[in-house]
Amino acid sequence: xxxxxxxxxxxxxxxxxxxxxxxxxxxxxxxxxxxxxxxxxxxxxxxxxxxxxxxxxxxxxxxxxxxxxxxxxxxxxxxxxxxxxxxxxxxxxxxxxxxxxxxxxxxxxxxxxxxxxxxxxxxxxxxxxxxxxxxxxxxxxxxxxxxxxxxxxxxxxxxxxxxxxxxxxxxxxxxxxxxxxxxxxxxxxxxxxxxxxxxxxxxxxxxxxxxxxxxxxxxxxxxxxxxxxxxxxxxxxxxxxxxxxxxxxxxxxxxxxxxxxxxxxxxxxxxxxxxxxxxxxxxxxxxxxxxxxxxxxxxxxxxxxxxxxxxxxxxxxxxxxxxxxxxxxxxxxxxxxxxxxxxxxxxxxxxxxxxxxxxxxxxxxxxxxxxxxxxxxxxxxxxxxx
Length: 386
Fold this sequence. Notes:
Shape: globular
Largest sheet: none
């Protein structure tokens, strides 16, 4: 147990240090687990949750193909025009749009696609972009929590705990709506009321053509049909006796087929290569390595020991144990899990928007949002389950 625990601690310490790619760190940790004999190769492979890996890969492929239609850019401009180009209204609608899309697709990809359009809109309105960018990042994180497929941790929890798509909708979506409303109010009080633009500037935004952002109408229709079919299949997964990974990979295969069947072989190869290049293989292999490291610790008995200690510390009180896990998970995730997300967002926003902020600046706004969100979840858990 001691050896596997040391490997786990070193692996997480290097991930937090953030000087070496997290996939490399996780795979090195997994390799050491096997080489030193904490796990044999067969046992290590048993520790990998292939349902999680398949679901992640399938959804990434779906996003890769559908994004080429231009649907995300269309949604951003449509939201701005529905708000009549009012900066405060755009701030609110872009948050809601980002949250909804992030609930159905990968949150990092959602932000990466929405940000360029957001910057174009704020430039036309002559307003500072950072309130919109911060709001979209926060909304993406919150919205991604609402469903099984919105965020990799959800996929992991759902697979290991045997929770289906409907369970996330029933138990998480209600509180996420409340959290999202609280965030929207905080964002409005912090920035929304101060955002002003001239009528002439607003007319420029109203004159933007959302339809021109659609690059391929056929692909858009195909993507929407497949995405809707995949979501419906997730809802019906239990009576259909299908795993989420099967649904996601089948949807990905169907969409790639629809996108390529009319092209010649060389063009098909180019499209498939581009699609697979968009898959976040770093995340996939990070999960594979981490599955093996955590399985080594589980086999060593550490997780069982920690579970017993938690029960003893809380006197066997289920509510106290739940609250402890809730708050500990929130603060630890702010350090460990969100490093890849924040590391992606900060360079992006700095380079594209020329907004001079660092990790500390992000934490200055993000930490209060997180505390308020977790406090709301605490009350929700108490009210609904205890």
